Amino acid sequence: MPVAMMSFALVAAGCNDDGSGSDGAASAAAHAGTTGPAETSPQPPAPASSAPATPPSSPAAPSASGAPSGADAAGPGRCTAEGLGMSVKRGDGGAGQVYYELTFVNKSGHSCSLNGFPGVSLIQRDGAVIGAPAERDGASHGATVLAPGKTAHVVLHTLNQGIADGGCWKQGDYLRVYPPGSKEALTLRDPQIRVCGDRFTTTSVER
Questions:
Q1: Closest Cα to residue 151, out of 201, 98, 102, 100?
Q2: Is 204 exposed, middle or buried (0-12, 13-18, 19+ CB in 10 A)?
Q3: How does strand 119-123 pair with strand 151-159?
Q4: pLDDT band with cut points at 50, 70 and 90 for residue 72
Q5: End-to-end CA distance of the chain
């Protein structure tokens, strides 16, 4: 009987060593090493940059004082019919040659330029051209700049009656003149120009 009790005690001790005792220690160890779910700490916001924003670009520097622009920078513009006055008078002639001086005056308030040959015609009251427009005589003299109130001229050339065949044209009621480069004309009433010998020419504008 004492032997049987000793065996039971040994068996019980063995159960405590391999069973609940070990499990308890392991459970305690596991409980001690276990933590709750990880929490990600929010990153602190990056400090605002203290560098100032890019400054606006500086305004464009003004152009030089009084500097002209556009057409003025390249020189005076072309004289227009609206800005011109016109007159004609008979010039000196000889040996059957007849000349008329056709003068332009700048009546505008600014300088302008005449360059080349005008278009010149004698016309009737109804606007019909008498004979033919004046032909160009000689080379161009280049640009002529007219300040306000200043003048330039061309020379019209024809012949005395009987110097050449062809007779004389009918007397013109008006002289119609297109300044060089213009599509608008000046008109002079009763110019007292008589063209004979089918000779009617104009020089280019000159001072």
A1: 102
A2: buried
A3: unpaired
A4: low
A5: 161
10 Å Cβ neighbour count for 69?
A: 8
Place of tokens 């032909």: 135
* CA 56 to chain centroid: 27
149-184 per-position pLDDT tens digit: 999 999 999 999 999 888 999 999 999 999 999 999
Give residue 92's pLDDT.
84
pTM: 0.65
SS3 string, 29-82, reads HHHHHCCCCCCCCCCCCCCCCCCCCCCCCCCCCCCCCCCCCCHHHHCCCECCHH
Q: Is 178 helix (H, G, I), strand (E, B) or coil?
A: strand
Look at residue 93 in the predicted model and tell me its pLDDT.
Answer: 84
Q: Which residue has the tokens 């004492």?
A: 2
- What are the b/e assignments for 116-136, b being 16+ CB within 10 Å? ebbbbbbbeeeeeebbebbee
SS3 category, 4: helix
So what's the pLDDT on residue 88? Answer: 97
| 91/134: higher pLDDT | 134
